[in-house]
């Protein structure tokens, strides 16, 4: 996934339900993949571009789960056609096309629901002396993911096609590995959300590594980090928290639902997924607290270094003050100064100044002021 800043929301001030893609420009074609399966049967078809998809959508094998994976939501025409075919409400389609839509879940009817999630990945920014550009460095990459679930059908929508977020689930279905082929639509939804949550843990691992690296640099007093590194990491944690926190309530709503969408044999998997989501949220909070502590340590370290500099300058000033007094006294233009006529007066003054400087320095050392 490529990290880009989203452009401004272009569907503002338009009629509700207007299908306008809100997100970064993408040159790649939208790919629609249909996967049908049950315990004994598996079929996968793929359509690229804006071809007629009526025949593609019409084929149905009895007793199978139908999964339509749309990779690349920037093609509003294909999204609109899918919405018409599956009778998806225009407001739902509008949220699918809006990549800045926050995570949420809505029940559209009995055994029908709409889910918005954010898939996360992370690249560690360059830091230290090799960093090319100064400022706040953020490595969080966010991808817009949507699910529309209807009886017997699940549609998944991914923001871009450079990296398929669900390739691991597709591999399990092809090889008939695990429980995915043996269960129904509820288990497929669990598998897809579980993949997204697993990536949250991968992101947390990289954030932990970066956090430990910055912490080591701060504790060693190294100059290979900047305050922008800390605030970049804080920004990443804030983005992740905003993406993950709503998942807790979504999973609770799914497990509390009495319509029977989540079958009893699949419910333990959702409970386990809920535990994982709670673990991710708690870890984020721990890292945020540690991040705040590191900022305080950083500022304290900077203050300590400044105090050390000021202490050194103060010691030198204290040593040179009596010396300045001596040279000021003997620099006055008076004739009646007995010391001026001593043969060794010059050397005596130097000796007094040296002894005074050494004495003051020894006193400061004894007091542990240096």
From TrEMBL:
Compartments where located = Cell membrane; Membrane
Where, by residue number, does the polypeptide cross the bilayer?
312-332, 344-364
Q: Record's superkingdom?
A: Bacteria
Please provide the record's keywords in A-Z order. Cell membrane, Coiled coil, Ion transport, Magnesium, Membrane, Transmembrane, Transmembrane helix, Transport
Q: What is its main location?
A: membrane
Q: How does it sit in the membrane?
A: Multi-pass membrane protein
Residues in a coiled coil are 197-224
The record's InterPro entries line, in alphabetical order, gives: CorA_cytoplasmic_dom, CorA_TM1_TM2, Mg/Co-transport_prot_CorA, MgTranspt_CorA/ZnTranspt_ZntB
Per the entry, what this protein does is: Mediates influx of magnesium ions.
Q: Which NCBIfam families match?
A: corA
- Family per record: Belongs to the CorA metal ion transporter (MIT) (TC 1.A.35) family.
The name under which this protein is listed is Magnesium transport protein CorA
């Amino acid at each position: 996934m490529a990290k880009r800043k989203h452009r401004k929301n272009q569907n503002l001030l338009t009629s509700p339900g207007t299908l306008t893609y809100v997100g970064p420009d993408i040159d790649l074609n939208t790919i629609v993949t249909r996967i049908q399966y049950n315990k004994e049967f598996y079929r996968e078809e793929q359509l690229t571009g804006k071809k007629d998809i009526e025949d593609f959508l019409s084929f149905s094998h009895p007793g199978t789960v139908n999964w339509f994976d749309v990779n690349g939501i920037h093609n509003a025409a294909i999204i609109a056609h899918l919405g018409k075919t599956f009778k998806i409400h225009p407001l739902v389609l509008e949220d699918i096309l809006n990549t800045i839509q926050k995570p949420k879940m809505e029940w559209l009817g009995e055994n029908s629901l709409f889910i918005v999630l954010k898939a996360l990945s992370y690249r560690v920014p360059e830091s230290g002396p090799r960093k090319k550009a100064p400022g706040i460095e953020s490595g969080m990459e966010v991808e817009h993911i949507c699910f529309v679930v209807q009886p017997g059908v699940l549609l998944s929508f991914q923001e871009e096609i450079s990296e398929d977020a669900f390739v691991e689930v597709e591999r399990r279905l092809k090889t008939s590995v695990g429980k995915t082929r043996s269960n129904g639509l509820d288990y497929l939804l669990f598998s897809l959300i579980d993949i997204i949550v697993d990536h949250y843990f991968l992101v947390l691992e990289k954030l932990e590594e970066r956090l430990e690296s910055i912490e080591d640099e701060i504790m060693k007093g190294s100059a290979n980090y900047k305050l922008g590194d800390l605030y970049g990491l804080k920004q990443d944690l804030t983005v992740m928290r905003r993406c993950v926190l709503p998942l807790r309530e979504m999973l609770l709503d799914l497990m509390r639902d009495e319509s029977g969408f989540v079958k009893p044999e699949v419910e333990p998997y959702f409970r386990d997924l809920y535990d994982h989501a709670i673990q991710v949220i708690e870890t984020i909070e721990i890292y945020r607290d540690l991040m705040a502590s590191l900022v305080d340590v950083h500022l304290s370290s900077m203050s300590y270094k400044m105090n050390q500099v000021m202490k050194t300058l103060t010691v030198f000033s204290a040593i040179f003050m009596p010396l300045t007094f001596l040279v000021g006294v003997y620099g006055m233009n008076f004739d009646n100064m007995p010391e001026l006529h001593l043969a060794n007066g010059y050397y005596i003054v130097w000796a007094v100044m040296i002894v005074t400087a050494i004495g003051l320095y020894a006193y400061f050392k004894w007091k542990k002021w240096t």
